[in-house]
Structure formats: C-alpha cells, structure tokens
Amino acid sequence: MAKKNTSQKRKPSTDDLIDSAIAQQNSWMENRRAFARRFLHTLNIFARPAPKPGEQSEKKKVDIRGGLRAYWFPIFCALAVIFVAVWVVFVHTPVAHRVVIVPAVPEPVVRDIDTTTAPEFDIVRIERGGKIVVAGRWLPHQNISILVDGKITATERTDSRGEFVYAPMRPLRPGNYTISLLGVNPDVASRDKVFVYVSELSHENSISLLMTPDGSTLLQAPTMLQHGDLVVSKIDYLDTGRIIVTGDALPRLRVSLTLDDKYIGFARVSDHRHFGLGADVGELTPGREYRLAVRLHDGDGRTVATINHDFKMPEMTGDDDTFYTVRRGDCLWIIARNFLRRGILFSVIAERNDIENPNLIYPKQLLQIPVEK
To answer: Alpha-carbon distance 26 to 29, whole Å?
Structure first.
C-alpha cells in the first residue's frame, strides 16, 4: 500500500509577500545606484585625485596624453572648422549671384459697376418634366440673381464673356411664372421679364414669352397642341349687332376672330388661359349660314390652331339683357368693353347686379348685362 504523502505545499503568508517585495525593491535600488556610479565615473574625467607636489613633473606627460585622448573629438571639430574657413576664403571662388528683378505689382483698382447696363435674357426654355433652362448675359465676373415671381431662387456667376446659365434640378409645377434678373452689388434689375407657362400636358405645350417695354417676343412656342389648348365655350350675338366669343387657350398668346373670312378683331389670352372678344359685325340675317373662325397665333403671328364654327342665324327673341358667368381673371372693365363696347360703362353692369365694389367680383358669379341699342 502506497504511503500517503503528508507533505503539503505551504501557501505564502502576507508577511512573506511583503518581505519579498521589499527585497526586490532594495535589489533594484542597489542596481540603479551602481549604474549611476559607473556612468558618472565615466563622464567625470576630472574625478582623479590631484597629484602630490613631488609627482607633478613625473606625471606631466601622462596628463597631456590623457587630455588629448579625452578631448580628441572637440579638437578634431575645431580643426575641421578652421580648414573649411580657410578653403572658403582663399580657395573657393564664389558663383556670381543672379539678380532677379521682381516686377512691380500694381495696386488693385476697384471699378464701379456700370449701372446703365442691365442684365438680359438669351434663352428661357421649358424641357421635359417641367425643368427650365435660363441663359443670359451681364457684366463679366459678376453675381446675378434669378427671381421667380419676385423671389430670389438662385444666384449665378457670369464668366469672362459675361454669360451665365441657370438650370435647377427641381422642375416647376404646371402653372404660370414670371422670371426676372437682378445684378448684385449694386442691384441692377433687368428691364425685361419672361412669362413662363408650364403645361400640365407636356413640355411641347409650354410657352416662354419675353416681355419688353416695346412689346413681347415668343422664346418658346408650343410645338404640338393638345385637345383643350384652344376651346370656344360661348358665342353671344346681341341685337346691337355685336358678337362676343369667350373661351380658353394657351396663356399670353393672341386669338383672332373672323366672320366669313373677314377679320373682325383679336384679344390676348389671360394668364389664367381665358379670353373674351367682342366685335361689331352689324346685323346678321336670320336663317342665313355663317362661318365663325377663331384662330390661335404664336409670337410671330403664325396660326397654330383654328376652330371653325358654322351656324345658322336664328330669329332674335327681342330680350334686352344677356347673362355672363365670371371666370378667373375677369374684371368688369373687360366685360363692359366686350359687351358694351366701352370699358368705362362697367358701372352700368355693377349697378344692374347690385355690386357695391366694382373691383371685387368672383369666379362663377352670374352677371346680368343690360344690352340696349
């Protein structure tokens, strides 16, 4: 039977651990002191004891050789410096210095901006999806702001030729907009503005119209008309011999009216796509057939759409009054001009319909128009 090992490993006590740590610290300190003594002894060459008076003559040569061994590196550096100095002064020939002439820099000149030159438009184009491109020109290297309906939407920088291009990523929603330009510092506004109509059908039905003090020019005409771009909603013939045609068309374009190929007048389409045209045609013969043609023209006067209305003149009922439904953008002055020949007679319509404020009428409001010969 094996003998049981009764010897067990004794776990060190706390006092043993403290004594061991103190011993290790003392050993480390002793090694540090020994290293410091060796290092200082190596550096301090003057730590040797002074010789006795009788030994000075005997150790003079030994001290000289020891001093040379101790100071050999500083002596070598001093001799090298002396050698370089002698070589630079007596041997080295300096290279002729090159003279660089720096041209004088002129003082910056602050030029006043010519406020008589206003920013101008070159192109305003509506592209697919309602995106627009605005290009124009002003003074070179100047900031120019683009305003849409009177609000600044972006500021661009003109190039050396004074040209700029603005093409926002966000498209315009269908509707009417007025675009203008503003030169910055000092503020110089453009004399011209551009009316933009973004069609809800397609960009081919959209319009951009340059409006100047001398007139208007079509920058982008509709290339393809859709159903609804020209609509005649009502034709009235009054016993005064006046005919009134109302309808809808592309905004800011011109609508002309002919009766049996005889030109009788024209009207501009409003920003809200409505038009109304009144013209004197004289007395029409009851029972006779007539052809009324309504034509839509672009900025160059070309006909882009035509509606022909053939009708037989009926017998007149003898009623003195007619009725008109107000549309968005109408005013009593235009209604009176179309029906009563003169816009100044708007007060007659206001009085007949008990309108207290002639400047305030509402869409779909039914007006009674007094018509008398």
So the answer is: 5
